[in-house]
Amino acid sequence: MDILLNLSIKKPALMKIKNLLILSLAFLAACKSSVPLETEPITIKGKFANNFYLGTALSLKQINELDSIQSALIAREFNAYTAENVMKSMHIHPSKDTFNFAASDRLFDLAKKNNAVVHGHNLLWHSQLSKFFEEIKDSTEMVAALTNHIYTIAGRYKGRTLSWDVVNEAVEGDGSLRKSVFLEVMGAGYLPIVFKLAAAVDPKADLYYNDYSMTVPVKKAGVIEMVKNIQAAGAKIDGIGMQGHWHLDSPTIEEIETSILAYSALGLKVAITELDIDVLPRPKNVEGADISQKAEIDILNNPYTAGLPESLVAAQTQRYKDIFELFLKHQDKISRVTFWGVNDGDSWKNNFPAKSRTNYPLLFDRNNKPKLAYDAILSLKD
Ligand code: XIL
Known about the structure:
This protein is an alpha/beta fold. The chain has one domain: Glycosidases (TIM Barrel, Alpha-Beta Barrel). The protein contains 15 helices and nine strands. It has helices spanning 2-8, 14-32, 44-47, 60-63, 68-77, 89-92, 102-113, 131-134, 139-156, 181-186, 190-201, 217-232, 253-264, 310-329, 372-378, and strands at 53-58, 80-83, 117-125, 163-168, 206-211, 239-242, 245-247, 269-278, 334-339. An eight-stranded parallel barrel has the order 1-2-3-4-5-6-8-9, surrounded by five helices. α12 (217-232) links the parallel β5 (206-211) and β6 (239-242). α1 packs antiparallel against α2 (14-32), α9 (139-156) runs parallel beside α11 and α14 packs parallel to α15. The chain is globular and about 55 Å long. The protein binds (3S,4R)-3-hydroxy-2-oxopiperidin-4-yl beta-D-xylopyranoside (XIL).
């Protein structure tokens, strides 16, 4: 049975075949003995196996399997892994001629052991960017550096990577292209070039553009225009990653739905890439998930250090339920839903946008116990 389960998670479509096989085996087993059948424990990855991959981001500590209880939970509940940090350029390619694959190799090994897929995050991003890219002033030199970067990293994991965030966060809040070093040195032409490089090195991996605030109309319009330009330049782009760094009240379900439909209308898959539901007050002047933004910590924006009030637990439970209902409704368009972290204690949202707060954004509590939100999405009807 395990072998079948393991095989099946490679592609949700195969789950249907698996289910048939399991039913047949169960039937045969039932014929042989009158002992009641043991049912497989229900998990979120099992629950959504016919719908989309169910993923999580993994920290270095989790990749290194330092906590055996959490390691078991990760293996049991998730079938797609994203490195929370270790594959960003400052870690994996810290200087021009140095690559550091120790942690990412372990991530791929862990995924293999657990029969999970790996989503690569990311090949190009202005944040957590290796310093040497910032120093490049010449476009020929930049193309050479990007070619080396993408060929070496995507090449190492070729055939083992489900998909890549080829470009992360290249559009500003007003819909214009972000003034990154890549735009400054190469102009907008850098975008199709990096997608072409990624497609050349690993033609089978799905190639994504990933960003936050993807439901805000002006940003959405900018992303759509950028994607159309990438497509018009003849580059392969397969999907849009909507970072789901969302709140209890925003974006609305309707805004999320309209956006899924708009990105899908470009002929692309849609992945919800970094899901967490922030329950804390929003400090002023901080929108989206621009990691360079910082808010002052004060008592007013860190009110739940002793636990989350029941009313907010209920609100978050309902919010997760509504969101997953929407995902199921559009499962034909959605390739993957990935949580940005495993348990509330791990979440980057304890430190963003203000440092050292107590947030509760995920499905598992600080003791790795499933929350009511977990039960709520497990009990959804397909
Ligand atoms: C965050 C990580 O979770 C933090 O540990 C790190 O300090 C900063 O980056 N958008 C992204 C992610 O694409 O890579 C970011 O991850 C969160 C925002």
